[in-house]
Amino acid sequence: MPLTNVGFTADRTAFCPQTNPQLHSAIFCPNTQAPPGSPVITMDPQGCFPNQLYSGVIRPVPGATLTPQLRLTTICAEPAPPLQFTTNIQAVIKSVDTRGLTEIAAEDDNINAQIKT
After folding, report:
1. Tens of pLDDT along 30-67?
2. pTM reported for the whole predicted model
3. How far is 27 from 16, CA to CA, in rounded Å?
């Protein structure tokens, strides 16, 4: 599942018709109705999709009453502009319940966000 907010924002002013009338598409503008300078545009929360698997490990859950988790290290890509290291590529650890084969989103870790703090 994609992460809807990786903890970083991007200024998408250059991708909105309100401030750049020469655009051929407003696909990367978060809100074409927002006024120029609006935080909706200048502080747009970034998401990403974990699409590059690096490795996996099964780890026991503390207390041993729960199912072990599969932890997957991935690169999470956000192909939308602007190009900057804080928004386009995230190091993410995803968690999977090994019995139910379901994602445990509450256990996901965004390493970039941890470095930020």
Report:
1. 899 999 899 999 999 888 888 888 888 988 766 656 67
2. 0.66
3. 9
